[in-house]
Amino acid sequence: MPDNGEHVAERTAPGGVDTASPEETPVFSLRDVSVSYGDHLALAGVNMDVNAREVTAFIGPSGCGKSTLLRSLNRMNDLITGARVRGELLYKGADLYAPSVDAVQVRKRIGMVFQKPNPFPKSIYDNVAFGPRTVGMKGDMDGIVEKALRGAALWDEVSDRLRDNAYSLSGGQQQRLCIARAIAVEPDVILMDEPCSALDPVSTVRVEDLMAELKERYSIVIVTHNMHQAARVAERTAFFSVQVDDAGNRIGRLIEAGETGTIFTKPTDKRTEDYISGRVG
């Protein structure tokens, strides 16, 4: 197979990415997934499933590949020069990296919310309408915007100021606006990369409560350094750590994944127990 920075996999699924019932579990199946940036192997040998209509948390120390893996789930790593994903990464049974799959359509189905609120320098309305306009969604745009803002628990706070600049919102409101922007294109999955790390405690609670509501309609994967947050919001948790090879290279690896209660109270690997107990960071 060519070594040209493209995804390498043993098999690919024909057609698009939406090949199964939205209620089917798992929503993602990862088999021996590794991610490299140029010659650097950042994450190696990940094998796990992610269930639909649940919150799955990725936890672990800095540099263990959590965000790298998250970005692989909607092909955001495609935008990084030299990034390569190997192995088999299936979304509802379809290979996300098959040649026939359009990365733009992947990101429509699998939305993302970033660590720092990143509204566009536009009005509140235009922030939410941006995605639907870009992908050519049909229908009443006012209704689409209202539905998304209601879904993000923000409508009541901004309904009378939709033409105001999004930067006029508080940090917590901006993050919920970004969530509204993500769900406006009617995705199936929402990826969240440290969505509360830049927020105050009150705003964090609002976003966590929102996650509990959103999982009724969406599958959610969240990266968090806050173990208490993972314990509060996630049905399943995956713990990643860093291993150093003989050449001194730091490589992220999945140590174990399972039900959150089990991971936090009866982990099978001592490395997980040490991290959760605070003995190692």
Element-by-element helix/strand order: EEEHEEHEHHHHEHEHEEHH
Unreliable segments of 5+ consecutive residues: 1-15
Class from secondary-structure proportions: alpha/beta
- Spatial shape: globular
Question: What is the strand tally?
Answer: 10
Mean pLDDT: 90
Number of helical stretches of at least 4 residues: 10
- The fraction of residues assigned to DSSP E strands is 15-25%
Cα distance spanning the termini = 39 Å
CATH level-four homologous superfamily name: P-loop containing nucleotide triphosphate hydrolases
At CATH's second level, what is the architecture? 3-Layer(aba) Sandwich
The major sheet is characterized as:
10 strands, mixed
Total number of domains? 1
CATH class: Alpha Beta
State the strand order across the main sheet.
5-4-1-2-10-9-3-8-7-6
Jot down its keywords.
single chain; 281 residues; ten-stranded mixed β-sheet; 10 helices; 25% strand; disordered N terminus
Overall description:
- This protein has a 10-stranded mixed β-sheet, sandwiched between helices.
- The protein has one domain: Rossmann fold.
- Strand 9 and strand 10 (250-259) form a beta hairpin.
- It has helices at residues 66-72, 103-109, 124-135, 141-151, 155-158, 171-183, 201-214, 227-233, 260-265, 270-277, and strands at residues 28-37, 40-50, 55-59, 83-91, 94-95, 110-113, 189-193, 219-223, 236-244, 250-259.
- Helix 4 packs across helix 6 (171-183) and helix 6 (171-183) packs parallel to helix 7.
- It is an alpha/beta fold.
- The chain has 10 helices and 10 strands.
